[in-house]
Fold these 4 entries.
Entry 1:
Amino acid sequence: MIDYAKVRRMMVDNQLRTYDISDLGVLSAMNEVPREIFAPADMANLAYSDRPLVIAQAEDGETRHFLAPMVFARMLQNLDLNAGERLLILAGALGYEAAVAAQLGVSVSIVEPDAALAEKTRQNLAQAGLSDDVTIIDKPFDADFGVADGFDAILVNAAVEKRPEALLAQLADGGRLVTVMGDGGRTSRVTLFVRSGEVIGDRPLFDAAAQPLKAFREEPGFVF
């Protein structure tokens, strides 16, 4: 029988600490949350792999996946979250990212437009004892989520091929958005966007692989 607590400690020590992740809150949260309960039962033994892992498929064929632990942790670290801030997560791995973020004292909402996956997310969060700590929003990924003052932080647990303007418009002043920019392949990079007044700057951080979201795919251009 696998000792998942031991495997989690190994993930933190061997994958995260060696990948420039030093935020004690992030390290503690990822050591605390049982990643395996958010994976299908027959994939639990793969949950701590150092590679991206597809764990579910929506009715429209789009997948949900774990990012590599070091990629997700470094994205979370770069959001520099403070207790009480409002965090929006898109394309989450059935609640895992929300469970980790909730350990940091932020107010977490997940966007999950697929009814079956939203229900599975609720079940996973209940198993983790977090039913009352996370809000699930059943809207498309590029929708207006109706938060008047905007979100303090947005984490897209996937790749986007184009600048996600619909999401950037929903950042509060000082808000941050982190995502993988590109088609999810070798040239893709985790990018941090920061809003200052009406200006939104961006900064590439590091290379990463992720599944692209259909809602933010680049439209094919004409070839002459």
Entry 2:
Amino acid sequence: METRIALVGIIVENLDKVEEVNHILHDFGKFIIGRMGLPIRDQEMNIISIVVEADNNTINSLSGKLGMLEGISAKTVYSKAGVSDCNALT
């Protein structure tokens, strides 16, 4: 199955949900290439960016599960080419 690279942007406005966010990310850990978190303490929120390599269904599942949590927003940006297509270009 073809995989894609995607960036999942997560805004955590309900800090009580941080443990649930981390649990979901742990469940999808084998697909995560990199993660960066930025605490915005004066506004009591966290911004997390996740780079993943997976098939579309897996990426959509990750983003959907995160977005269903109260006080959590998640949006995904996909690479235009699949990983197999990227390798063919080099």
Entry 3:
Amino acid sequence: MKKFLIIAGTTFILLSGCATKEYVKEQTDPIYQKLEKIEKQLENMNKEISSLQKEIKTVDSKVDSVQWTAKEALKKSEEAVKESQAAVMQAQDAAKKAQAAAETSKKAFELQQKK
């Protein structure tokens, strides 16, 4: 009798502690569903990151182009300033020469008037 009770008790404990396939499936299905949802979200995020990286490269390229254009415009404006400064100097020299020629003409005219 003792043997029977020990065997029956042990069998009961072992069988009650075992999980059935259906029970395990019921418990793990929600976990798998959440995991699949998270994997899809991660995949979408990776696609978005990839897209953003491409956009960043495009923007960087455009910024580089704008910087180059700005540098070229600055060089041309500096050259134009130098050329205009040279033109101002030439105009001032021409004005001085014209003034000197006018004074010389005036003196020559005055000398002719005195004769």
Entry 4:
Amino acid sequence: MTAIDPVTLAVLKGRLEQIADEMDATLYRSAFNPIIAEARDACHGLYHAKTGDTLVQGTKGLPIFVGAMAFAVKAVIAKVEREGGLEPGDTFLFNDPYSGGTHLNDFRLVRPVFRNGKLFCWLASVGHWLDIGGNVPGGYNPKATESFQEGVRFPPVKLFSAGRLNQDIVDILAANTRVPTSNWGDLNGQLNALDLGERRFTALLDEYGDATVDAAFAAFSDRAEALMRAAIRALPDGRYSFADVLDNDGIVDEPLTIALDLTIAGDQMSLDFSRSSAPAQGPINISHATTVAACYVALKHVFTEVPANAGCLRPITFTVPETTLLGAGAPKPMAGYTETILRLIGVVLGALASADPERATAAPFGTINALSLAGHRPDGSRWVMFSFFGGGLGGNPETDGLSHANNPISTATIPPVEILEAAYPVVFTQWALRPDSAGAGAHRGGLGAVYEIETLTDADVFLLGERGKVAPFGVKGGRPAALNRFAWQTPEGWASPPMVSKVTDVRIRAGERVRLETPGGGGFGLPAERSLDALNRDLRLGYVTPEAAARDYDLTTGETR
């Protein structure tokens, strides 16, 4: 293998990450739907020619896709090994969550990069498309019992063969969505990103040489492995367990458990999820690929110095039985995968905190609250608004949790109210922090938010959320945060869902509203240990009401707060 000096290695790392970042930026600028263009629910990277392992990711893409995209590339490689016929100019499309992870809305495009007639690596793009058919506009069907009710499912298929578009696939895509123009724009945005990435990467190979870049790829992975082994070795050997629950699956109103037994032995770690609940009837199942990707996100939160490539997973083994909701197979529904991975990430962080209590933080709000509103404009055209919403992060040893933050699975941004109102016939009549939503503590959690939305046309309402029954927990004596709450207007008044955090088959009239109140984060440390200045500030700003302060904090000293 070609020797490579540290300076060249550092330069190549920056150049390669910049290529992925440019691919991200290209898609953000050209996508039609706000979930990609504004919320940045997308990712790009470079992958190993033979294994499909992650070589390089950008700094802007959605973290959950970092691990999941490798499984997508592996699925394409498996198809090529079975069927052959790979050549320059091919581009594969698919959205199968069972082999590629996440859910049906996330469409992957995978393209080979050839040098001198030989496959050198793969480029890949993923983006969340607004609607892909199924029973519910937007794809988040809280009542789905199999994937056929969630949308159209594509195994890896050639969208381009030797540079020639397969129009039949485009026609099938257009026929299976309520918003074909939006999906067409997103597809072309991803193709533009791949085109740019291929040009930039080819120029880099021409500049540095194939052997040098290949050696850099190997060095990146080896360094990530070494750093991860060192991080694991710094933790005490032992077995550490943690568990948390989901409200329900939208079908059966019973909690489901995500349980982890984490074992550390020297420089190796194993994560065993065998004690988790069986696959669910409703759409909160996830595949093995998604579970591994979510664990990667959790580990990255803790071991921030370890680079984002496949090398960091070499010291780690995963036990994810198909008999659990974390290793479910077809045709189990997976639209609400985001709710499950949020709980899974919290469980991994909880187990690691047991191994190293100094890393303990309280739970974040723990739900994306996937809200879909859909109707028809006066001209008869269909509109589908999908968005996710913020909440509070958990208190930690250093400070209070962030308020109105996004979830720890993503770098995505919450779409701005101005963009949503411009794109859809809706008006946000309230968008504010939610008082008393944070878990009390020496360092309280961040605050959740209140969103009240009025529709300007009749609209169908769908919500797939969580934390409506089991609140985000506090640690070291901190209190839990407020529960998630959702309601909608009816002629008789406000109504709430029987399943608490999941809604379907609801229709509101023009001028009526829906209201979402998201949880805050859990508290860290005893509330009685919160400083007077901090509590007074919370009272002055309206973050905590006097009633909540009297209930949750120690006011027996007679001090004026």
